[in-house]
Write a structure and sequence with these properties.
- By secondary structure, the protein is α+β, with helices and mostly antiparallel strands.
- The chain has a domain of 98 residues: Nucleoside Triphosphate Pyrophosphohydrolase (Alpha-Beta Complex), CATH 3.90.79.10.
- It is built from 3 helices and 6 strands; from the N terminus they run E-E-E-H-E-E-E-H-H.
- The radius of gyration is 15 Å and the shape is globular.
Length: 157
């Protein structure tokens, strides 16, 4: 079984008296007639990169914002079967990090990223554990909400 390693981020930002999180709507993953599929920005760890570097890069590429690393939230582990080429089973580990927004405008991404990302948006952090499409990502958003509530609540605007 092939192994894949990815990394991404839960990007948080205080705005308008509450905490928000950056999410993406992946291109080609919409559910016809249903709400948009919302996910966290993430991607494959490239040769020579640490998972932390990958998380920062993927967030910048998929959302357009610059962030700083707060800490690791955890790993999501699962097995899937490739839907292309060899249809091989893959064991995947996705490391997700809590990242703090620093600068940039959400959604200002390179045109070539439109094959991966339909759009990026801010949603309230407290809604993310219910609105994200994937179970593991919902759990990481809940961890981020817990961390922010315990450690960053005094930084609310």
């Amino acid at each position: 079984m092939t192994r894949e390693f990815s990394a991404g981020g839960v990007v948080v930002r205080p705005m308008r008296g509450r905490w928000w999180v950056a999410v993406i709507e992946p291109a080609g993953r919409s559910q016809s007639g249903k709400k948009a599929v919302l996910a966290l920005p993430k991607g494959l760890v490239e040769a020579g990169e640490t998972p932390e570097q990958t998380a920062l890069r993927e967030v910048r590429e998929e959302t357009g914002v610059e962030t700083t690393l707060v800490g690791k939230l955890g790993d999501i582990k699962y097995v899937y079967t490739r839907s292309w080429a060899d249809r091989e089973r893959v064991f995947k580990i996705v490391s997700l990090y809590l990242l703090r927004y620093e600068s940039g405008k959400l959604g200002e991404i390179a045109p070539e990223m439109s094959v991966e990302v339909r759009r990026a948006q801010w949603i309230p952090l407290e809604d993310a554990p219910h609105q994200l499409a994937y179970k593991g990502e919902r759990e990481m958003a809940a961890r981020a909400l817990d961390y922010v509530t315990r450690n960053l609540c005094e930084q609310r605007p």
